[in-house]
Amino acid sequence: MLSDLTLTEIREYVKEKGLPAFRGNQIFDAIYAGKSLQEVSNLPQNIKNEIENDYPAYKIANMFEGKDGTRKYIIQFADGEIVECVLMKYKYGNTLCISTQVGCRMGCKFCASTLNGLKRNLTAGEMLGQILLINRDIGGNKTERKITNVVLMGSGEPLDNYDNDIKFLKLVSSGDGINISERNISLSTCGLVDKIYKLAEEDLSITLTISLHAPNDEIRRQTMPIANKFSIEGILKACDYWIQKTGRRVAVEYTLIKGVNDKPEHAKTLINIFKNKLYHINIIPLNYVKERDLAAASRQEAYSFAGLLTKGGLSATVRRTMGEDIGGACGQLRNTLLGEAK
Fold first, then answer.
1. pLDDT tens for residues 171-230?
2. Are strands 82-90 and 71-76 parallel, antiparallel or unpaired?
3. Which of 181, 210, 205, 204 has the alpha carbon at shortest distance from 93?
4. pTM above 0.70, yes or no
């Protein structure tokens, strides 16, 4: 797919087809404008016919807007598969939470994305396409970009699609394209230790986020099957290596589940683990997923828990819940029910 390619690679593509070099620039610009092939007015029909099978055919199939202005987009790909991604508006700009896989195989019990398992990985160009389509939808283009920040935190485990993720990061941060700084990109993982070490060697400036959600392995195994393979100790050793290699702080996601991981002794354990280290803890009140029977801690309980952490010397905040009324909050994204609000 042409959206998987760099500008240099697209120029080589048109050269191999015997087309003038400037056609490569036109195709590249059209892709980064979020245009469908038929919308590209400066390409003659014979060239459109020539590249039709390679030009990206993803599209916005539907969009829902929440009462807080958060938008959930349904993106459909050429094979009919869909993902959801979420646009969140902040004072500093617009953050887009994108998906990296159709579904997920990690099996976390508080997350809707994994209910139907993993259908397939997204290509680098399909990840990029979510940004390009929505950037256009909110009035942006390649040179006047409206999306300022990106989080790889939608459906899927990013490090389970490692090679496509790395290619995507190079595409999205390229000065030829939409040019989103790596420092404005966060990648969230449930803790694939071997891939964290590998990621640390990539010389990237992204933010690494760990979905921890428990103070110890015993509790973590109750809700996260990946804990049977990778221990918290192993994950944090990999994260310490990341910090050593990059000099960048690691963010820790901690979904607060009532009666499971929300007690003062759990906060004390976290303090012992993270005190005087380069980590920030995001406390997330559990969001509703109808198929799950886990109970959410209240926002007041979340603030109290975060308060215990800050008193213990940690950097900790309670994440603002956005898009819950449209099924767009953390843990609610899925890849079914095309065109229906969740």
1. 999 999 999 999 999 999 999 999 999 999 999 999 999 999 999 999 999 999 999 999
2. antiparallel
3. 181
4. yes
Look at the block and give the residue holding tokens 């099996």.
107
Contact status, residue 66 vs residue 328, Cβ threshold 8 Å: yes
pLDDT in tens, 326-335: 544 454 444 4
The candidate with the shortest Cα–Cα distance to 61, out of 40, 83, 39, 37, is 83
Q: What is the DSSP string of 170-200?
A: HHHT-TTTT---GGGEEEEES--HHHHHHHH
Helix (H) or strand (E) holding 303: helix 299-311
Q: Are 180 and 10 in contact (CB under 8 A)?
A: no
Q: In the structure encoding, which two tokens stand for residue 35, read together? A: 């245009």
Q: Which residues are catalytic?
A: 84, 330
As a 3-state breakdown, the chain gives helix, strand, coil percent values, each rounded to 5, of 35, 20, 40
